[in-house]
Every structure is written in C-alpha cells, then in structure tokens.
Specification:
This protein is of the alpha/beta class and 233 residues long. It has 2 domains: 3-95 and 193-207, Nucleotidyltransferase, domain 5; 97-188, Nucleotidyltransferase, domain 5, CATH 3.30.420. It has helices spanning 36-50, 70-87, 96-114, 159-164, 174-178, 195-207, and strands at residues 3-8, 14-20, 23-30, 60-66, 91-95, 120-127, 132-138, 144-152, 166-170, 186-188. The chain has a 5-stranded mixed β-sheet, with helices on both faces. Strands 8-7-6-9-10 form a 5-stranded mixed β-sheet. A hairpin with a 2-residue loop joins strand 2 and strand 3 (23-30). It starts with a strand and ends in a 26-residue tail after the last helix. The relative contact order is 0.19.
C-alpha cells in the first residue's frame, strides 16, 4: 500500500493528485499552460489540506517525464525532485505517451471489450508544431509496439499496422493527422489524461520498485528545444 503524490505538467492541462494505491483521494487542475509553474505548488498544498495529509507521510512522488511542453516538463520534474530530495522519498517517472494510453484505456475499455473480434492498438499523439508529433503505439496491455519518437506525419504513416489492426488515435497531435488519413481502421477519440491516470502507472512502478535515479533524472524531450536566433545588423 502506498500514498503517492502525482504531478502531470507535460501538456496543455496540468494536474496534481494524491492517490492511495490507485484510488484518487483529491485532484486539482489548471488549463492555463503558460501558468503551470504558478499552479503546481499551491495545488500540492491544497491537496494536502483536503486529504489531511502531511507531506512527510507520502511514500513517493510520480511525474510525467516527457515528451511534452519543454517548460512544463522542467516544472514538473524540478518540483518532484525537490520534494523527493527533501523527504528522501522515491521518485517515479512515467512517459507522457504511456500515461495518455492509460487514459484511453480507462475511458474506452468498455468499447474495446464490446469489439472482441477487433485487434486494437493505441496511438497517443502530442502536437510538436508543423506536421510533427511526439507519438508511440501501444497494445491494450500497454506493451510497446512502437517506441516514443518525433514523427513527421505523411499519408503512408502506419499503413503496415493499419492492415491488421484498428488503431485509436488521440491527443493534440491527432487533429492534424485526422485530416491526412483515410483508412477504415483508423479511429479517433477525444481523450484527456490527468494525474490520476499517472497514479495507476505510478502504483505499478512502486510495487515493482521501478524508481528513478534522483541525481541524474532529466526530462525526456525527444528532441532539442529550438529557438530561432535573432539577426542583428
């Protein structure tokens, strides 16, 4: 049994929650992506007060480590590492795309179970500007079919997998992919992940003692941050 503080600041919506095993005791949200840094600490205090929990009573801190917003990833991981270092608690880092896949399972598992003759795959997509996305492909048991990568979308993408599988595409990056793909096995859904979905994976990691190295843990950016240089005459 474990009390885990979960922090997700990787995408447009930030959330923080306290979980007892996989049960969400309290959760807080923010839809202001540029304000994630100001949201996290007050949200943690709010959740501690609502659950009547002292920060020292938690067993671990879990965070989405990327890919995602560069600033959001730094905010979330820095907060998680700071708490873990101060309290000497384990740090758990989960891939954002896997957390998104867990959210899809939690939202649509009933639909997939009704279609038992269909082989499903899950494909979360995070918009990475222009026609690029951060993406991966998972089986319904969250085993990886395609590892997380930065992918430039083209019409032929996923053709091999779509021959034998129905693929559920979702996430901010799937919007532009939907305009390109015309295949009967390509399905789309609006899925919103939150820190509660992170909590499910975090508890599994806790039970298996899959803890990150606190000193060397860094965000999983997938590609370097690009900033156009100013030209001065």
């Amino acid at each position: 049994m474990a009390i885990i503080l979960n922090i997700d600041t990787a995408t447009e919506t930030a959330s923080v929650c306290m979980c007892y095993n996989t049960e969400v005791l309290s959760i807080a949200y923010s839809n202001e992506q540029k304000n994630h840094a100001a949201f996290v600490q007050p949200a943690i205090q709010q959740i501690l007060q609502k659950t009547n929990t002292h920060i020292a009573a938690i067993d671990a801190v879990a965070v989405t480590g990327g890919p995602g917003s560069y600033t959001g990833l730094r905010v979330g991981l820095a907060t998680a590492k700071g708490i873990c270092y101060a309290l000497q608690k384990p740090l758990i880092i989960e891939n954002t795309l896997k957390v998104m896949a867990q959210a899809a399972l939690a939202t649509l598992s009933h639909y997939m179970l009704q279609n038992t003759n269909t082989q499903w795959l899950l494909c979360p997509m995070i918009d990475a500007r222009r026609m690029e996305v951060f993406t991966a492909v998972y089986q319904p048991d969250l085993m990886s079919v395609s590892e997380p990568a930065a992918l430039i979308l083209e019409e032929h993408c996923y053709n091999d997998l779509l021959k034998d599988h129905h693929i559920l595409f979702f996430g901010s990056g799937s919007i532009k992919w939907k305009k390109l793909i015309q295949h009967p096995n390509a399905q789309f859904a609006e899925i919103s992940q939150n820190a509660g979905h992170l909590g499910v994976l975090a508890y599994q990691a806790w039970r298996n003692k899959q803890w990150a190295n606190l000193a060397y843990a860094t965000p999983f950016y997938l590609k370097e941050f690009y900033h156009p240089k100013k030209i001065y005459k």
